[in-house]
């Protein structure tokens, strides 16, 4: 049976059952030991947690998820004057050999929750659990969905790492980690243009190398990748809301309607006015 555990204080974590476990946490400042007998996924919906894995710190903030392969215990820290709300999912350990070794992945991968359907699913579930809206019958269904989706997420990460033109595997993994930091910044700022120098600083790379590696890993340079994200959200809002097109353009980081229309037409082959809007209800 899948366990659903509430965690309100720090301590030494226990190993999850072979069927898997959900840990819903609301933690004050302090440190916890984290067992890693099976792969796990951690999201934070409020505050931030620092997970030290194999000697390296990973700072997990809202909008991010940390994928961790099985291995030695790690340490989770909540800084002074902070409190975090989060969810950790321990996958079933029976028959689970961890991450596919053929993918040459690092043991821990930090990603934006908005970068794939698995991240969005877990972030939404974590928020509902903390609002007291988690269906008691849902954990088994959620665990099945997470287990089924994780392989695709890891395969995608493996392809991105493999696409980097760097000989040493550990260097490719380090560059990928920095690229994911930059990608999370783009996903977290859909309402504005993120300058290349700001993005490069966040990743600790030069603008030239960031652009080159980003395009290799994700199929488009940062500016085009981010423009597509902003236009996708704008197109969705056009389809499901009655907001004025000028307001949707501003929310997508376009100060001028003409610039938004030009970018939209180039992306979708039609003007924003061609999108069918929802009908307004009669008074």
TrEMBL record:
Classification via InterPro entries: AraC_XylS_family_regulators, Homeodomain-like_sf, HTH_AraC, HTH_AraC-typ_CS, RmlC_Cupin_sf
Keyword Signal attached: no
Organism: Sphingomonas panacisoli
Keywords, sorted A to Z: DNA-binding, Transcription, Transcription regulation
Domain named HTH araC/xylS-type: residues: 180-278
Highest taxon in the source lineage: Bacteria
Gene Ontology MF terms: DNA-binding transcription factor activity; sequence-specific DNA binding
Cross-referenced Gene3D superfamilies: Homeodomain-like
Protein name: Helix-turn-helix domain-containing protein
PROSITE patterns cross-referenced by the UniProt entry: HTH_ARAC_FAMILY_1 (PS00041), HTH_ARAC_FAMILY_2 (PS01124)
One Pfam family matching this protein: HTH_18
Statement: the UniProt record of this protein carries the keyword DNA-binding: yes
